[in-house]
Write a structure and sequence with these properties.
Order of helices and strands: EHEHEEEEEHH
Radius of gyration: 21 Å
Strand order of the largest sheet: 3-2-1-7
Mean pLDDT: 89
Structural class: alpha/beta
Distance between the termini: 61 Å
Strand content: 15-25%
Low-confidence stretches: none
Helix content: 25-40%
Number of helices: 4
Largest sheet: 4 strands, parallel
């Protein structure tokens, strides 16, 4: 039956899932809270190819909608800009929404802190999705930042330049 993908993430994952489901023969409705599907990709210049591809594949696109309820037969949405509601018949709902951090590896390493010096480890830092899930770009930045600051010591200051304006 029809599948609704609800995208409250705004990056590319929902569109990739839509393509995969279409390839498996599903009728797909991609619904998002933004005014454009994969809204974050405006910043990466991917939004036009994504829109074209989804439309070519026959994915039904619905924008400016906020998830209200799913009962196993239909998904109900409220318009982000008015009091109107929309219902889409669907047997499945795939939410692309909140992500929770998973710092299990970091916690396991902290439990073995007494073994660090023997292994030549001075410290362990929790970064990226283990600390605060975000876009892939955020995880890449976190890794790049740690590499830049490796062995530099902690300055106690923020890792960016502050520009203070005086009025």
């Amino acid at each position: 039956g029809p599948v609704v993908i609800y995208d409250d993430d705004g990056f590319y994952l929902a569109s990739v899932l839509a393509e995969a489901l279409v390839a498996h023969g599903c009728e797909v409705h991609l619904v998002c809270s933004d005014d454009v599907v994969a809204g974050w990709t405006v910043n990466t210049l991917e939004y036009r190819p994504i829109q074209k591809r989804l439309r070519k594949l026959g994915v039904h696109l619905h924008t400016g909608q906020v998830l209200q309820a799913f009962n196993g037969q239909a998904v109900r949405f409220g318009c982000a800009w008015s009091d109107t509601e929309t219902t889409i018949a669907a047997l499945a709902l795939v939410p692309v929404t909140m992500r929770l951090p998973d710092d299990e590896l970091h916690q396991a390493l902290l439990q073995r802190q007494s073994e660090w010096s023997d292994a030549g480890i001075a410290s362990v830092q929790c970064i990226g999705d283990a600390l605060a899930p975000g876009l892939i770009a955020h995880a890449v930045y976190a890794g790049h930042r740690v590499a830049r600051e490796f062995d530099s010591g902690e300055s106690g200051d923020v890792p960016f330049k502050r520009i203070r304006h005086r009025f």
